[in-house]
Amino acid sequence: MRLVERTPEVDLELLLKGFVPPPRFAGATFGAYRPDPRYPSQALAKERLRRWVKDRPRGGWFPFGRKPRLPGPQGIYLDGGFGVGKTHLLVAAYLEAPGPKAFLPFEELTYALGLLGLKEGARWFGRLRYLFIDEFDLDDPGNAQMATHFLSLIMDQGVRVATTSNTPPGALGQGRFNAEQFKHQIQSLSKRFAVETIDGEDFRHRDPGRFPSLWPPEEVERAYRMDPGPKTLDEFPALLSQLRTLHPIRYRFLLDGVRTVYLQGLQPIQDQNDALRFVYFVDVLYNLGLGLRASGAPLEALFLESHRSGPFAKKYGRALSRLAELLG
């Protein structure tokens, strides 16, 4: 089976029902989170989130169907580098929060709003008590305007929002588009959130300068033939071409029913748009808990140095960290 032969469609109803934590984080409870004692901010963020989802309404009478007023803050913003446990804590909060609730990556949120429209999206998500958004970011003016307006609309309806990000709220969009154009909206939005900065090291590999070696092509081929489970085998350039034809939200459906992905011929990705698509593909692989086997160029050569030191540096760092774990 080959991924390049698949053309998945997105069922909106199925998509909306699937806004739950990904399989990899099924056991990501507060009890399973082990803060690093060298970084007290990890334990503080854990306790802050735990208390936040257990907040009880203030006194008073509330009409049927109205959300109760809860003490502030209305939003929690987990800011920190990759691999410090932000998604783990976000999932743990989701598991303990009262419903109705939803959990989804920011990429999926923007696509869902594109399908629903901003007004209907605000109505649908406005029914929730809690919304959890993983990897919140603003990459372009379009999603900056849509995201800030959407969050204002649902938070005005009483929805509590928790999100993770690799970028402090006041710096969203900087270096990627003219963020000054949206400075007022971004600042207004950031005032609704209490920022919890989480320090620490990437738990996936302690030496960022060393990556696991990839397999020889013949070993990937042999492992693919011997693998009895549902699997795919693709050439890396062909996969990149396939990803260009699909919105990133379809990547999850592209991998439906697959247990292990085999790739031949990894090579440096010259085009930044292709590189960012592959970054999101890696995120989906990782979150679904799938296996990965690959041959080709070393991981450290996969993303160009000019890209890794640019405005999306944190995204590339996260992808390499996750690839190192998947291939290690």
Query: Order of helices and strands, N to C?
Result: HHEHEHHEHEHEHEHHEHEHH
User: What is the H level of CATH, i.e. the homologous superfamily of the largest domain?
Assistant: P-loop containing nucleotide triphosphate hydrolases
Q: Radius of gyration, rounded?
A: 20 Å
* Number of H- or I-type helical stretches: 13
- Note poorly predicted spans: 60-64, 173-179
Portion of residues in helices?
A: 40-55%
Distance from N terminus to C terminus (CA atoms, Å) equals: 24 Å
Biggest sheet statistics: 5 strands, parallel
Domain module tally: 2
Return the average pLDDT rounded to an integer: 85
Structural class call reads alpha/beta
CATH topology of the largest domain: Rossmann fold
* CATH-scheme architecture of the largest domain: 3-Layer(aba) Sandwich
* Share in β-strands: 5-15%
CATH class of the largest domain: Alpha Beta
Number of strands: 8
Query: Which sequence of strands runs across the widest sheet?
Result: 2-3-4-1-5
Shape: globular
